[in-house]
Amino acid sequence: MPKVMRALLSVSDKSGLVEFARGLSGMGVELVSTGGTAKALKDAGLKVVDVGEYTGFPEMLDGRLKTLHPKIHGGLLARRSEPRHMEDIRKHGIGLIDMVVVNLYPFERTVSNPDVKFMDAIENIDIGGPTMLRAASKNFESVAVVCDPADYQAVLGEMESQGGEISGKTRFMLARKVFAHTARYDAIISDYLEGVTGGPGGLPPTLTLTYKLSSPLRYGENPHQAAGFYEERTDGLSLARARKIQGKEMSFNNYCDAHSAILLAIEFDKTACAIIKHNNPCGAAVGETPAQAYRLALKTDPVSAFGGVLAFNREVDEETAGEISKLFVEVVLAPSFTEGALREFSARQNIRVLELPEMLTKPLKGFDMKRIAGGILTQGWDTLRVDVKSLQAVTKRKPSPEELEALDLGWKVVKHVKSNAIVYAFRDRTAGIGIGQTSRVYSARCGAANAVEPLTGSVVASDGFFPFRDGIDEIAKAGVTAVIQPGGSVKDEDVIKAADEHGMAMLFTKARHFKH
């Protein structure tokens, strides 16, 4: 490629601009610029040709029209190796532009303000910038295009070492970066406009997703799978904003389990601890202190908790950290940690300690999505809550106040257990968890078999209805006294009759919590 002789600069983000332009000018590059960019360069003492002077056409429409002109786009799109292109350029007096330096109006930052006015958002949709970026990138064989200030120094360094030229490899890399940048920019605009016109929980006709790589991961669920964490643009709850205070880098499985642990911990108003293993709860409890909640949660299944992920909905103190440090855990996540807790954890540097204050203040937003062959399934997040104390008993016996507390805890936990799910619980903790069986009665058996303590006097929460009375008969063997379930089976009368025979109280929620 010939030397860069002319560059067009038009940027919103002016960080590093003057230094970069000064470097270009020092290598004899003519600078053409627009509006505020031109002013910034002139104020720095650089010689700049205004775009209006270059095209012979003034900027107008409050700056909406600046660079959409044949003298700009002809200079960008002309292929230097194509004689007919070069003849058109000479015929119409169009100069070649060898470099474009453009970044776009800050649409993303503008709409991140929850109070943004619609027309302010619209005015921050860039037109000329993306057009120049795309034109220059399409012609990367002849034109270098820079959309990221982080690339300024590398581009200058290459030009200085190659006599003002930029290699084809670098031009292609820069062009590829531009198309990813403009695609994301347009996707954010589309997402914003869909949000303005769509109803609550509505599905857009086209789902335009945009994520940027937050961190590559060592591998995925297994070492042979490549993986990365791509960050969503959201003002809702985000693990991407968690501050890692200590420990190794997060893995794919760590992120999955941390997500599940957070969602379970924030179900509770009381001080709570959730222990997750392989994306399922293996213990959850409430207590007067985080340490007490942790000890009770651990009691459910101390074997499975080994290598687990913990989340708290309160600040973790030194006592709690000391208790946790007795067990090997992968991740501890909380809204905050005391200095004493951090000192305690510092002796166990392999424990990943994540601080995420917003877990107590920000809701989940967007869609819950699952990738399948050929597409994506979307749904709203399962944020449904049920006031258990307001439910009417469908059995002869009503639950006692203590049973109601246990049913409430069990119902909160069962939402986060893979279906079919059965949770045995007491008023302050889980006692046995039956996970992901193909039959509800199998889950009931597994939950009871895995329990460490006697289940006499416990209650059961079921994520779906009991299709037959056999599930009730099974949990009765364990000493269960009350049940909460959605109801809705054609065999509901048989199920209620079984509960009455066993002296159980039963509540119907009329809502289920399947999790696949």
Global shape:
elongated
Which spans of ≥5 residues are poorly predicted at pLDDT below 50? none
**Beta content:** 15-25%
Biggest sheet: strand arrangement: 8-13-12-11-9-10
Helix run count: 18
Fold-level CATH name of the largest domain = Rossmann fold
Largest sheet: 6 strands, mixed
Total count of domains: 3
Oligomer: single chain
First-residue to last-residue Cα separation? 55 Å
Cα radius of gyration in angstroms: 31 Å
In helices, the fraction of residues equals: 25-40%
Give a verbal description of the structure.
The protein has 516 residues and is α/β, with parallel strands linked by helices. The chain folds into 3 domains: 6-195, 3-Layer(aba) Sandwich (Rossmann fold), CATH 3.40.50.1380; 244-360, AICAR transformylase, duplication domain (Cytidine Deaminase, domain 2); 388-508, AICAR transformylase, duplication domain (Cytidine Deaminase, domain 2, 3-Layer(aba) Sandwich), CATH 3.40.140.20. 36% of the residues lie in helices and 19% in strands. The chain contains 18 helices and 20 strands. It has helices at residues 17-26, 35-43, 51-55, 70-77, 83-91, 107-111, 118-123, 128-138, 152-161, 168-197, 252-265, 290-300, 318-324, 339-346, 401-414, 440-449, 470-477, 492-501, and strands at residues 6-11, 30-33, 49-50, 99-103, 144-146, 211-217, 227-232, 243-246, 272-277, 280-286, 308-312, 329-334, 352-355, 368-372, 375-379, 422-426, 429-434, 459-462, 482-485, 505-508. A 6-stranded mixed sheet has the order 8-13-12-11-9-10, sandwiched between helices. Helix 4 runs parallel beside helix 8 (128-138), helix 8 packs antiparallel against helix 10 and helix 12 packs parallel to helix 13 (318-324). The longest helix is centred in the middle third of the chain and has 30 residues, at 168-197. The radius of gyration is 31 Å and the shape is elongated.
